[in-house]
Design brief:
Elements lengths: L14 E5 L4 E4 L7 E5 L6 H12 L1 H5 L3 E5 L4 H11 L4 E4 L3 H6 L4 E2 L11 E2 L2 E5 L5 E6 L9 H13 L9
Parallel strand pairs: 3-4, 4-5
Antiparallel strand pairs: 1-2, 1-5, 3-8, 6-7, 8-9
């Protein structure tokens, strides 16, 4: 299947994801503040755990600037197990559907074996969404090894927010 390019500068069609802590979190659509969404591969990925542990360590810096949502295609049981093991403080969502992955422009992978996982899953992505629901920033990878530097990304997002920078890369 051809990879879809995310529509930066455009609105994300809102969708809800269930959150381990209860309720749902909406991706896209109007919000009271900026939102950063991090998509991870799932419970089976040790590189994801390292990245998310780093995010949790600096979550207070991120949360001071914007909402932070982390999501995967995992089942509730898998997401709950990760939360129990790592004690992350960010909103951890689960059940990302393949159509939603593709709408975000994420790369989708099939499991290499049932030991890895049993369903298709999203490769990593990060999405900066303005309060009006438009997509400001996209960082996607086709595999687990490429992740944004959280310090640089936060610094750049603060600059964009503070200076009301226009969306780039629309041409």
């Amino acid at each position: 299947m051809t990879h879809k390019r995310p529509n930066v500068g455009g609105a994300i069609a809102p969708f809800d994801l269930k959150c381990v802590s209860g309720g749902t979190r909406t991706i896209g659509g109007p919000s009271d503040r900026w939102t950063m969404v991090f998509i991870y591969r799932g419970k089976h990925c040790p590189r994801c755990k390292r990245f998310l542990n780093k995010l949790d360590a600096v979550l207070h810096q991120w949360s001071a600037q914007m909402n932070v949502i982390v999501a995967s295609a995992d089942t509730r049981d898998k997401a709950e197990a990760d939360l129990a093991e790592f004690g992350w403080r960010f909103d951890l969502c689960y059940g990302l559907q393949e159509a939603q992955m593709r709408d975000l422009g994420l790369y989708v992978s099939a499991p290499l074996s049932e030991a890895e996982t049993t369903a298709n899953f999203a490769e990593p992505g990060a999405f900066g969404i303005k309060p009006d629901g438009t997509l400001m920033l996209v960082d996607i990878s086709n595999g687990p090894a490429a992740r944004p530097d959280l310090e640089e990304l936060l610094d750049g997002m603060i600059f964009n927010i503070t200076n009301d920078r226009p969306v780039r890369g629309t041409a």
